[in-house]
Amino acid sequence: MSERVAPISRYTRRIASALRRAAEGEQSHLTLSGLVLLLGPKAHRLLLLVVSLFNMIPGPPGYGGTIAWTTCAIAVAMLLGRPIRLPGIIGNRRLKLDMLIKASDQVVKVAAVLARLSRPRLRFLTGAAANLPYALLVILVSVVMSLPIPFINAIPNVGLCIIAFSMLNRDGIGVIVGLGATFLGLMLAGGIIVGAYHLGLAAVTALA
């Protein structure tokens, strides 16, 4: 009997295979809209995993904000039950294919390891009924992560990544862990925002 492959392993292999097919066309870059077409305009959960993983890759100035708004756009499409269509200002952003392929290969390896700890359980937290609260949470977190404040998106994004991984692997326990990480990240982000506000206020007062 062949070994059963975890859902998340199938999904991550699908991502890696799709990117390799794109590279076979001799193109060096892939737009975010092209990525949506490659993986499927209705593959909301899969694309949320992909963009949360991309947000962990260092990029040029503005990269983090672009990925955050892409995440938000995907979540809005999920909320409305519509295919994903990115606005041109986001969708035309180009990413290096070789970087994406290397990242996807690492994701496949990591997913294979994590799949040993994660398994389908508490499926009511990962079913279709979870799409509404899931999308609303992602929209909220994406707006926070889009703020041009250093380090504000690190922990919330890790939480979103865990949730996306667990949703695809039908692991409700993982979703709970991801929610904890996300809310912790939002609390820290709130502290950073309040601290930045008070520093700016102190600077204005000192100059007055």
UniProtKB/TrEMBL annotation:
Domain of life from the UniProt record: Bacteria
InterPro entries: ExoD
Record's keyword annotation contains Membrane: yes
Keywords tagged on the record: Membrane, Transmembrane, Transmembrane helix
Transmembrane intervals: 66-84, 124-145, 151-168, 175-199
Alphabetical list of PANTHER family matching this protein: EXOPOLYSACCHARIDE SYNTHESIS PROTEIN
Identification of the protein by name: Exopolysaccharide biosynthesis protein
Organism: Devosia honganensis
